Write a sequence for this structure.
């Protein structure tokens, strides 16, 4: 404590009054009193003074000792170094600006990506004591965490465990259909247990959470809590909302509470706008209404651990809990495993999907930072050459080497810190740009991530600053301090030896690494063009939308009537060229997800392994192929007459035709789907883009009007329009709403936009890669330029001698150009090899382009060889104009 | 003056504190003279030793200082003990006595510890 206090005073002493003034006065009075004493004892004044001075010792030494004690010497030298470093930077503002800019972009890009990593994977929930919360998932045989729980499984788990203080079931639905006075819209909602808000420890902004009895009887208590955002956007922040009715999925819910601002539920990235009791799940149109075992599944649970419990112990307990017996659940589900996870970041499934993307982006931005670092190290090495004389003088008047290294290192850390501060600014802008990619997905659902600055991001960026500053500063500093004083001072700083191998390696490394980034950017750009163009379908001038009358309790007859009317009315709408429709469910119009598998075979009898094939099945209406411009390789598309009662027909894609009939005899053959024969009347092109890890899958198209089971009231429409699809969208919506103003409409957007959103990882990687690649290329050019510029300056005398001995100006130009081009060439070769190896990481993002695509490699090589000579030219030009007379005289 | 010893490291603070306690508010010169006298001119204090030590004690909160006038009407900085300084002096004096007593026992003939 005493030392701490003293230390604090010393720090204050550093900034306080001018040190020593007080002391001088004190020493003066000391001396005078001593002289007085001596005079009193009989000495003459001169004698007295002399004796006193001898007795008291050196005044300057005393002051020095006092000063060292007065403040912290190391802190003082640090301040000196900082001041000196700042002056050095001010002296070369061009260098400082370039260095800070490089670092700002490098650190900014890295920090922005890390902010996403933080938001996606690391941020705890903004609730009270988030470390006590755990999620409970059922892990299915496919390894996905969303296998779900039946409601009785939840109650059994809740009532027979000692691990949790509280447990809530929850299921998220992104497409609740909300009808208010202002119209109808889709919102994301969560079905949760009655104790949900208490469990999270979220105090409501208005009203109350759910009561336990409101979550006890299936379908009885239609109450809802709405988000602050919904309250403000839809209900004008009206406090009278409490007690009001809102219609969700055609049920009236009474609003009992408004969540606090900034609370969007507990699922990272999936902002909920409304919460309703889990007991309303069946009534809201999802599965059966009695919450029995044979019912729709709930996504998962969230629980607060009992005091003293740990995740591992709770996991052990849950693994041994039996959730159902064969009598409870005769149609027993496939094997599932109860898994506990932390509530940090996204759900494990989403996190696994996003992790690869984030790894790639981090790798890219780290490469950029590495290039910037190499570049700065090169620049500092070169500056070290220029500052040799200054450093030699310091060393010769007694500075220790460690002192010189420390001072140079302080300079580079100062530079890094300035870059870090500017980088934080850059990262805010970059975050905005990046978050657009994550705002909406291809199904039109909104996502929201908390990208706010927190201590993890701060620590990360500060660590980057420290690492960078040390990395690019240490080697040049050590090298600069290790020099031969005598020769340095004697020769006056003209060293003919060029100890430049290190800076040359750095430049080659930069060129190579930026080559890798630019090649990757090129490959991704080609891939992006490929997916945006659509593979065998034309997404331009197309509008997609999904209509779900099932959510508003349509009967099948009503659904059929609605679909026919929509088809007819849309075709009559001005500007509409053609209309296609298909069953809804999983996937998109042009890209079919999992969950619509069908097993087909060539034989009518029971299927055995080897004779059957799992394919993706889709029921499409007439005009589907014509509207999407999917080429039919053989046969015809579905027509109006392909309806119930007429011969069953099917269209297969090329991949399926080749799998089932490798001899090419698909047309007219029969294929059995669920033991019923369908005749193949057409073969279509594959519409899935091909890449290294995803070959086209077999697709089977059946006629929409021919299949009874799937017309449940969920339809996707694809409409080809003559003009701008975004402009035509409102008119299309109006047509549908004129038939039923409350019919739920979603996923409505231009198809090209949907394609972009679906391939967001490709486009995002492409944008980031292009930015980093071009920046890296510029940095390498700067690196090349600076190493040559300093080489020319260091070799001025040599060049002067060469010219004096008869070298022509062109020879000098060639000499310097050759040096630069040689380095660039080495970089290109190394980079091409590195790219061949490392683009393996891009395999999942490259559609329709090989990762060894010769065109891209060639273009990038040409680009580098255009940039490199440009960077070499200016120093070479300067070398050429050296005046031999002056060069030799001044040196 | 060659036979004067330099001040033993570590004991200076104790001597300074004791001197200030004995003399009341006192200036640096007075402390130096007093220590020299008390030691029978065996110790000599120069500026470089005394003033950093005073500064250290002040930073540690054992003493405070104030400008004032000396007996000969010269401007001088007077030091006095704080409460913390008094406590520290007591404690360090006790420790010192203990330490010297222990060391002394090693040099007393015939009194081996039991």
């Amino acid at each position: 404590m005493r030392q701490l206090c003293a230390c604090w005073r010393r720090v204050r002493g550093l900034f306080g009054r001018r040190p020593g003034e007080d002391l001088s006065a004190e020493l003066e009075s000391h001396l005078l009193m001593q002289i007085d004493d001596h005079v009193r004892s009989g000495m003459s004044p001169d004698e007295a003074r002399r004796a006193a001075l001898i007795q008291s010792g050196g005044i300057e030494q005393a002051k020095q000792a006092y000063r060292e004690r007065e403040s912290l010497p190391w802190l003082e030298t640090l301040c000196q170094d900082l001041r000196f470093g700042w002056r050095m930077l001010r002296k070369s503002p061009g260098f400082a600006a370039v260095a800070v800019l490089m670092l700002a972009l490098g650190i900014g890009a890295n920090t922005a990506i890390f902010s996403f990593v933080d938001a996606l994977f690391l941020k705890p929930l903004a609730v009270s004591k988030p470390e006590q919360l755990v999620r409970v998932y059922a892990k299915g045989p496919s390894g996905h965490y969303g296998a779900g729980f039946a409601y009785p499984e939840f109650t059994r788990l809740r009532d027979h465990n000692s691990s949790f203080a509280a447990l809530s079931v929850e299921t998220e639905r992104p497409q609740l259909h909300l009808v208010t006075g202002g119209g109808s819209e889709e919102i994301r909602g969560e079905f949760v247990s009655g104790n949900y808000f208490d469990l999270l420890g979220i105090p409501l902004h208005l009203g109350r959470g759910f009561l336990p009895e409101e979550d006890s009887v299936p379908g009885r208590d239609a109450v809802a809590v709405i988000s602050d955002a919904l309250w403000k956007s839809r209900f004008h922040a009206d406090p009278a909302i409490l007690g009001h009715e809102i219609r969700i999925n055609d049920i009236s819910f009474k609003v009992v509470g408004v969540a606090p601002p900034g609370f969007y539920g507990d699922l990272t990235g999936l902002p909920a706008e409304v919460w309703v009791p889990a007991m309303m799940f069946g009534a809201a149109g999802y599965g059966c209404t009695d919450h029995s075992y044979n019912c729709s599944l709930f996504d998962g649970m969230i629980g607060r651990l009992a005091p003293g419990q740990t995740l591992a112990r709770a996991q052990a307990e849950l693994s041994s809990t039996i959730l159902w017996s064969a009598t409870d659940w005769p149609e027993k589900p496939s094997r599932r495993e109860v898994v506990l996870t932390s509530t940090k970041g996204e759900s494990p499934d989403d996190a696994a999907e996003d992790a690869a993307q984030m790894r790639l982006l981090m790798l890219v931005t780290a490469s950029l930072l590495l290039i910037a670092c190499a570049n700065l190290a090169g620049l500092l090495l070169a500056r070290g050459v220029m500052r040799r004389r200054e450093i030699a003088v310091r060393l010769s008047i007694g500075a220790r080497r460690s002192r010189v290294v420390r001072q140079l290192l302080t300079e580079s850390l100062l530079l890094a810190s300035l870059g870090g501060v500017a980088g934080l600014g850059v990262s805010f802008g970059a975050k905005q740009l990046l978050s657009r990619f994550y705002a909406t997905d291809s199904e039109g659902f909104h996502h929201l991530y908390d990208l706010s600055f927190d201590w993890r991001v701060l620590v990360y960026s500060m660590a980057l600053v420290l690492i960078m500053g040390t990395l690019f500063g240490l080697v040049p500093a050590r090298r600069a301090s290790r020099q031969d004083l005598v020769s340095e001072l004697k020769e006056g700083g003209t060293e003919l030896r060029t100890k430049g191998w290190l800076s040359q390696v750095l430049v080659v490394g930069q060129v190579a690494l930026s080559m890798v980034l630019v090649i990757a950017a090129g490959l991704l750009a080609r891939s992006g063009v490929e997916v945006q163009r659509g593979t065998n379908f034309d997404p331009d001038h197309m509008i997609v939308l999904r209509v779900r009358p099932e959510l508003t309790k349509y009967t099948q007859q009503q659904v059929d009537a609605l679909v026919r009317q929509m088809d007819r009315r849309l075709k009559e709408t001005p500007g509409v060229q053609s209309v296609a429709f298909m069953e809804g469910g999983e996937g998109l119009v042009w890209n079919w997800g999992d969950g619509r598998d069908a097993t087909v075979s060539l034989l009518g009898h029971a299927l055995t392994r080897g004779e059957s094939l799992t394919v993706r099945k889709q029921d499409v209406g007439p005009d589907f192929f014509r509207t999407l411009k999917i080429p039919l390789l053989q046969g015809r598309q579905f027509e109006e007459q392909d309806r119930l009662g007429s011969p069953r027909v099917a269209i297969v894609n090329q991949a399926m035709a080749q799998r089932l009939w490798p001899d090419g005899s698909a047309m007219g053959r029969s294929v059995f789907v669920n033991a019923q024969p369908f005749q193949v009347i057409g073969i279509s092109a594959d519409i899935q883009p091909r890449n290294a890890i995803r070959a086209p899958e077999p697709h089977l198209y059946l006629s929409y009007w021919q299949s009874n089971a799937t017309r449940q009231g969920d339809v996707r429409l694809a409409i080809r329009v003559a003009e701008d699809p975004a402009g035509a969208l409102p008119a299309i919506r109006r047509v549908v709403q004129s038939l039923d103003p409350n019919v739920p409409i979603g996923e409505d957007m231009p198809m090209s936009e949907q394609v972009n959103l679906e391939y967001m990882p490709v486009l995002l990687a492409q944008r980031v890669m292009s930015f980093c690649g071009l920046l890296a290329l510029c940095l390498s050019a700067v690196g090349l330029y600076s190493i040559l510029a300093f080489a020319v300056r260091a070799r001025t005398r040599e060049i002067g001698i060469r010219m004096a001995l008869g070298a022509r100006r062109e020879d000098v130009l060639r000499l310097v150009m050759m040096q630069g081009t040689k380095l660039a060439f080495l970089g290109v070769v190394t980079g091409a090899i590195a790219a061949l190896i490392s683009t393996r990481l891009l395999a999942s993002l490259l559609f329709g382009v090989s990762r060894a695509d010769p065109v891209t490699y060639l273009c990038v090589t040409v680009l580098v060889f255009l940039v490199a000579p440009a960077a070499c030219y200016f120093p070479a030009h300067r070398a050429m104009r050296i005046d031999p007379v002056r060069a030799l005289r001044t040196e | 003056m060659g036979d004067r010893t330099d001040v033993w490291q570590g004991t200076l603070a104790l001597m300074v504190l004791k001197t200030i306690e004995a003399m009341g508010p006192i200036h640096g010169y007075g402390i130096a003279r007093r220590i020299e006298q008390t030691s029978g001119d065996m110790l000599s204090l120069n500026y470089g030793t005394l003033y950093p030590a005073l500064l250290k004690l002040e930073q540690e909160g054992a003493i405070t200082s104030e400008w004032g006038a000396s007996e000969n009407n010269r401007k001088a900085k007077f030091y006095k003990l704080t409460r913390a300084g008094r406590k520290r002096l007591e404690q360090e004096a006790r420790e010192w006595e203990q330490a010297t007593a222990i060391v002394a026992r090693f040099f007393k003939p015939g009194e081996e510890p039991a």
